[in-house]
Amino acid sequence: MKIVQHRYFIIFCFCSFNLMLRLLADANSGFQGDELLHIATGNHPAFGYMEFPPMIGWMAWLQNQFHSSSVFVHHIFTHIASTLIFILTAAIVQLLGGRNRAIIIALMCLSISPGFGRSFQLFQPTLFTQLFWLLGFYQLLRFILTLKHKYLYYLAVSCAFGFLAKYDIVFFIAGLTSLFFFKPTRQQLLGMVLPLSIALWLVLISPNLWWQYQHDFPVFQHFTELYKSQLDKIDFPTQLGKLVVALNPFAVIIYLGGLYFMFNSNNKPVYRPLAISILVSIGLLIIGKGKFYYFFPIMITLLCFGSIWFAQLTYQRFKWAFYTLGFFFILSGAVLIPYGLAVLPLQGFIKFARVKKENGLYEIKNQEYYSKQTWKEIMAALQKTYHSLPPTEQKNCLIWGKHYRQAGAVSLFHQEWGIPDAFSYHGSFYLWAPTGQMPSAVIAFNSDDSGQQFWMSYFDSVTPVAHVVNQYSKDLDDGQHRLTIYICKKPKQDFNGLKEIFKKRIFE
Predict the structure, then answer these.
(1) pLDDT, tens digit, for every residue of 239-249?
(2) pTM of whole model > 0.90?
(3) What is the CA radius of gyration of the chain?
(4) Which of 107, 173, 184, 316 is buried most deeply by CB count within 10 Å?
(5) Tens digit of pLDDT for each residue in 290-317?
(6) What values do phi and psi take at 435, rounded to 5?
(7) Is 425:381 a contact under the CB 8 Å cutoff?
């Protein structure tokens, strides 16, 4: 009984520490650029979007009921999901036969990882696919342990929710073919349980499939553009190096130990189907040129095995190693966590990381550190531009953000700054673009890499009126670097014409 109580206390302590770090980061940080699109989907709940499935939109809709632009409000579901991941990780370790020491190791590895620190914080589908991947793995483990059919149905539901969160759950689903390689699980799949489980999964995801069909399957267009612009340039050794850094190099021994242990444990009837499932998912992600953070949910499952391996290894023979590694975990975590999670204020991080100013610019990779300040500067410049217009032009004026991050920021902040709402033809904003006649004046803004020429294709009069330089980033893709604001007049077409023009250019 005391062991169980201690186990709950251990989980509670790690969950509380995790939540404390996230609340601290909420206080220090702004939004990462993609979060602004995800928040905007909450104004347009639907069964699908151009880039991702519908779950994030419905979560955003619930958060939007608070009518707030605070980081904390728009991270409510991320805090819930990250806490559930800690609880699920502990539950999987326990089901695999791990005791309290193994649970401590697993949860400590999650806590000291800068990669998990950041992915657990951001309001993005990536976090929720990790949650449902892990929930699916938990149900898979329970099925293998008991061979009860109800866990296959729970597995189907987990996979369905994972699919509605992010499409890369298909790599986990592909790994489930391992169940056919082993007689005990293969026998259970015979009969009606397998088709019924598949049918349940299809019913749950059918609203999104229907939405994709109605919109000519934009997901394929998105994947094609993503492959051309990013994934085709990816090489696995580089991504592996990034993965090691993201996990925390001191913790790599646990993940490698898990890879070894799941094939060499005495509990082969349970471990082998799980091991093959993990390897299939890893192999397909490598072939598919997945980014390093696509491997995060797989790494958590490896972590569960590795924590048991290390706990058993150090239980009798190398007790000193447990405490020594724990010391290095804490020390390395204190150093690395600020690089993944904004636990420090901006100037504090600049001093901590010794970021040097070169040519008037810093280079801070995580937008969350500086976005709160830079979006204020951008909103102030847009507000000044808007107030410079005559009252007759202010009445129907709209703001055109070329990138969905820019449009998303205006969509989130426009009411508190007293400026018009935004539209865009980039990503899912294309779905919500206005129709009919265009106003006589449109305020447009984009990064300098696009230039004035872009707007002159759609207006006869384009006047640059303001420049905003983000001194904390050299990244042209962050949506905030070297922005130019224009007043555009005399449109060459109406909104319907613009929508037709951008029909095949949604992901440019």
Answers:
(1) 999 999 999 99
(2) yes
(3) 25
(4) 107
(5) 889 999 999 999 999 999 999 998 877 7
(6) -125, 170
(7) no
